[in-house]
Amino acid sequence: MGSKTFFFPAPVPAERADLLRIHSAEHVDRIAATAGRPFDSLDPDTSTSPRSYEAACLAAGAVVEATRQVCGGGSGNAFALVRPPGHHAERGWTKGFCLFNNVAVAAAYALEELGLQRVLIVDWDLHHGNGTQNSFYQSDRVLYFSTHMFPYFPGSGTLAEQGAGRGEGYNLNVPLSGGMNDAAYAAIFNQILVPVARQFEPELIMVSAGYDIYHGDPLGTMAVTEAGFAYLTRVVKDLVNEMCDGRLVLTLEGGYSFQGLRDGVLASLGELSGEALLPGLESRISPLVEARFGASGNLSSDSLAAIRRAYAPRWHI
Ligand SMILES: [Zn+2]
């Protein structure tokens, strides 16, 4: 992008010790064993080619490095533009194109290596991040907040899955029917995520940024536009400016429309950098601010009330 605003650090593969905070040794070994092999099928959706293991280590490593730099004060925020994605990967198995859980590996690194006490993970991918949820289900140090289509792959992500033990109340799912537009997402972020985040007081916010909620995505039926992606990014950026000294790390999850992926990522990068990268976008973002005042797009007020009711016992929302 030839801009002084962006810089591109060299990717660094994740250390085995970093992967082992989230994954079993058997799982890491199983992925490592695919290196150099022409083809392996690890589950019905997930197969590998000779360099998949290398790519997966670089993907997890990039999110770790982004987190290290953002928390070290070297950079205000970062976007790890990686594949394969990560949020479906479980401790002991792959799922849904995901080999290692990049965002979970980096959040665990932030807690154990950087000394952070609380990390908020926001997951706006079309699909529920089962692997991320399960990685921190019993922890009160990582709050997982996911909006996703439901019922849909991978099948988890109900309002009732709220965490266990010390983690009870620190897992917030917002299951949605298809068709949700920019204003619906804006309302959920403004009316549920923002107040919960202010009470949780994270020191770092990470985003599993999936662009498969784009209106033209072939895997989904959500109706989010470039303006919506910019606005959701703006909401989390405002939160980190308010509470986390600007520490924000986005990592790429899904997104299967090339146009949606390109323009959605540019919309987010525009917000992260403060540079207008998509002409005319600002005028399309402004109406979304109305969601702060009660508008909820095509999400019914009954649905919004049900989400609020599910979490109101623990959080003031
Ligand atoms: Zn997805």
Order of helices and strands: HHEEHEHEHEEHEHEHHH
Query: Could you say which overall geometry the principal axes of the C-alpha atoms support?
Result: globular
Considering DSSP H and I runs of 4 or more, what fraction of the residues is helical?
25-40%
* Ions, cofactors and other bound molecules: zinc ion
- As for the CATH topology, it is Arginase, Chain A
Share in β-strands: 5-15%
What is the number of independent domains? 1
Beta-strand segment tally? 8
Low-confidence stretches: none
Q: Main beta sheet, described?
A: 6 strands, parallel
**Cα Rg:** 18 Å
Amino-to-carboxy terminus distance = 40 Å
Judged by helices, strands and strand pairing, the structural class is alpha/beta
Name of the CATH superfamily: Histone deacetylase domain
**CATH-defined architecture:** 3-Layer(aba) Sandwich
Mean pLDDT: 96
Q: Going across the biggest sheet, name each strand in turn.
A: 3-8-7-4-5-6
Q: Report the top-level CATH class.
A: Alpha Beta
